[in-house]
Design goal:
Blueprint: H1 2-20, H2 23-48, H3 50-66, H4 70-75, H5 78-127, H6 133-295, H7 300-352, H8 363-397, H9 399-416, H10 423-443, H11 445-469, H12 474-487, H13 490-502, H14 516-521, E1 526-527, E2 530-531, H15 534-553, H16 569-579, H17 588-626, H18 634-649
Antiparallel strand pairs: 1-2
Helix pairs in contact: 1-2, 1-5, 2-6, 3-5, 3-6, 5-6, 7-8, 8-9, 8-11, 8-13, 9-10, 9-11, 10-11, 10-12, 11-13, 11-15, 12-13, 12-15, 15-17, 16-17, 17-18
């Protein structure tokens, strides 16, 4: 320690002074020095009290470290905390040793300068001892006291300042170390928190992934379940639809059966209802008429003038209708006379020549046949022109007649589409059409003729479309046409005019088709400003010929007393005229029309004409088709096959399907 070093140096200095001074002076001085030494020793002991203070200060710093918060100690690893404490203690001890060494050096230097000064003072006191011993003793005493006070004050001031600076430096270092420790702990705490956050995030991500997998699995199971439910519902729906369809079919059958049993009763009820409605309507009209008469008295003059004008117009219309009717009757009479002459000529020709071979006639005969066919074509063409000018034009000019005809024709068109091979259905349609025509006849003769013409056009149109697809549909259509013609004689000329305009082959008429006029006369149709092709044209001609052939073979019972409007003799005329057409004028359409006529009319033709009819059919299927073998017409080949089947089986033509 510094204290022990200072005392030993001081004692050696005193020993040197005692040896140099005389005995008396030295004795006095020794007493003074001993007293001073006691004072110095007291001062040294007082100064040495700073050492415990410094140690206490270090101990307090160590205790502060030891007494740091439990929260801070828990943040640092125990081994790391021990290493930090040892490092801080070693640093404090090293700093204390350095301070003590420096203080010791400074004390030694002070002691040496003090001893040197005191030695000089002692020497000077020794020289002047004899002269002024008392004075020197008091002066020396005061001087030593002042020197001692200065030294003590200086040493106390230096030691206090040094220890204060050291303590401040130590505290600063301790604070820096504490701050570093705190920052380090804060960084470690932040790192730990970041690791915990990352760990929590990882755990949360893992949990979310597990939940996502669970949701995907649940969604997959839900979709599978929905698909299964949808498939099950679809199967159930299909089963229900099948059951509903079976139920509907059964209901339709039951309904049809019920309707078939109650149709007559419903028809009677309908007629009774119509009669009652007419009576009620008449009564209502009488009442309304009485009311109108009461209201129209003020305008009687004006209504009278309008009535006179209407009567005048009606008289003119009746005159026009009478003239048209007389003209049609006259033309019909001429036609009947011409047919009687032709039938007589055919009978004479049949009696004169038994075999009917190809060619049937000479060039002169072919010319006669062509002239007859042309005259008949012109006759029916003239009827078409009269209808356009005297009927259609009149109806188009009168709004009231036009409105009535438009309403009535909507009742006619759907009926033709309701035809079947059922006799009851044909009669039902016949009654409906006859009712419409009779109503029109009672309303206006012009409207009656206009509706007859519209019915003829509808029949031909139905033959062009439906019969082409299904030849057997010609039976109900031809039957209906002849039945309604038997009730309305004027219909005979009109329907034949419409059929011959579309298909002149049925009267044996032909003309060159290398001009537009020739194609129009032979019934060609324009589609998109172009003539239709031969295949479509031949199909239309076959459909019309099928219906026309059925019309010639319809039979009426003898009890009905109805004369056939268009008998089977017209089929004979068709066959003979067609066979007499020049070979170079024959086309595939001629054979198509004959084959269609063969399918539906040949059986009735053989029944009517017997052996002569057989010779006609043999000529058609053999020599007539052979005459155009070089042209390889498909219809000619088909007609030849029909003839071979007839010869092989003995049966020709289609059998008519009959439904109840």
């Amino acid at each position: 320690m510094v204290v022990f070093s200072f005392n030993s140096t001081y004692e050696s200095t005193l020993a040197d002074g005692r040896q140099a001074a005389p005995n008396s002076a030295m004795q006095a001085e020794a007493e003074y020095l001993h007293s001073l030494e006691d004072e110095l020793q007291i001062e040294i002991e007082r100064l040495s009290e700073h050492l415990p203070k410094i140690e206490l200060s270090d101990t307090t710093g160590i205790a502060r470290i030891q007494l740091s918060s439990h929260h801070d100690r828990n943040k640092v690893d125990p081994f790391e905390r021990s290493r930090n404490r040892m490092s801080m203690l070693n640093s404090i001890i090293e700093n204390w040793n350095a301070v003590q060494s420096k203080l010791a050096d400074e004390s030694i230097s002070l002691d040496e300068s003090y001893v040197a000064r005191q030695r000089r003072i002692n020497l000077e006191s020794y020289r002047d001892h004899d002269s002024n011993v008392r004075y020197m003793s008091a002066r020396s005493k005061n001087m030593w006291r002042r020197i001692s006070d200065v030294v003590v004050e200086e040493r106390e001031h230096t030691l206090a300042k040094k220890m204060k600076d050291d303590e401040a430096q130590i505290r600063r270092k301790l604070r820096e170390n504490a701050d570093k420790e705190r920052l380090k702990m804060e960084r470690q705490e932040k790192l730990r928190e970041e690791q915990e956050r990352i760990s929590k995030n990882d755990l949360e991500m893992e949990r979310l992934q597990k939940e996502l997998l669970q949701l995907k699995q649940q969604e997959k199971e839900r979709l599978a379940k929905e698909a299964e439910d949808k498939e099950r519902l679809e199967r159930e729906r299909q089963a229900a639809a099948e059951l509903a369809e079976e139920k509907r079919q059964l209901e339709l059958k039951l309904r049809a059966e019920h309707e078939r049993h109650q149709q007559l009763q419903l028809e009677q009820e309908r007629r009774e209802t119509e009669r009652k409605e007419q009576e009620a309507e008449q009564k209502t009209q009488h009442i309304e008429q009485a009311q109108r008469d009461a209201q129209e008295r003020a305008t009687a003059d004006r209504l009278e003038q309008e009535r006179l004008q209407v009567e005048k117009a009606m008289l003119e219309r009746q005159k026009e209708e009478t003239r048209l009717k007389e003209r049609l009757l006259h033309e019909q009479q001429l036609k009947q006379d011409r047919e009687r002459l032709k039938e007589q000529a055919e009978y004479e020709q049949e009696q004169a020549a038994k075999p009917v071979q190809r060619p049937l006639s000479t060039t002169v005969a072919s010319g006669v046949v062509l002239d007859e066919a042309k005259a008949e074509y012109d006759y029916y063409h003239q009827i078409i022109l009269v209808l356009k000018s005297d009927v259609n034009a009149v109806v188009a000019a009168d709004k009231q007649l036009k409105s009535y005809c438009s309403t009535a024709k909507r009742k006619i068109r759907p009926k033709l589409g309701q035809l079947t091979n059922s006799t009851q259905q044909i009669l039902r349609v016949l009654d409906d059409l006859s009712r419409v025509l009779l109503e029109a006849q009672n309303t206006s003769e012009i409207c009656y003729v206009w509706l007859l013409n519209f019915l003829c056009k509808s029949v031909v149109q139905q033959a062009e479309t439906e019969t082409t697809v299904s030849p057997q549909s010609a039976y109900p259509l031809g039957t209906l046409a002849m039945f309604i013609t038997s009730k309305h004689p004027l219909l005979r000329e009109l329907i034949m005019a419409r059929i011959i305009k579309k298909c002149p082959y049925i009267i044996g008429y032909w003309c060159p088709i290398d001009t537009e006029q020739g194609r129009k006369r032979m019934g060609y149709r324009r589609i998109d400003e172009k003539w239709e092709d031969d295949a479509m044209y031949s199909e239309r001609m076959a459909g019309i010929a099928s219906v026309w052939g059925v019309m010639t073979q319809i039979g009426f019972s003898l009890k009905s007393g109805t004369r056939h409007p268009y008998p089977i003799s017209h089929s004979w005329t068709f066959a003979t005229r067609t066979l007499n057409i020049p070979t170079e004028a024959l086309t595939n359409t001629h054979f198509t029309v004959v084959a269609a006529w063969w399918d539906l009319t040949s059986r009735r033709f053989l029944t009517a004409y017997g052996r002569v009819g057989e010779r006609i059919l043999e000529t058609m299927s053999d020599s007539w088709t052979q005459s155009v073998s070089s042209k390889r017409y498909p219809a000619a080949a088909r007609l030849r096959i029909l003839g071979e089947q007839w010869k092989k089986t003995g049966v020709t033509g289609m059998e008519r399907p009959v439904e109840p």
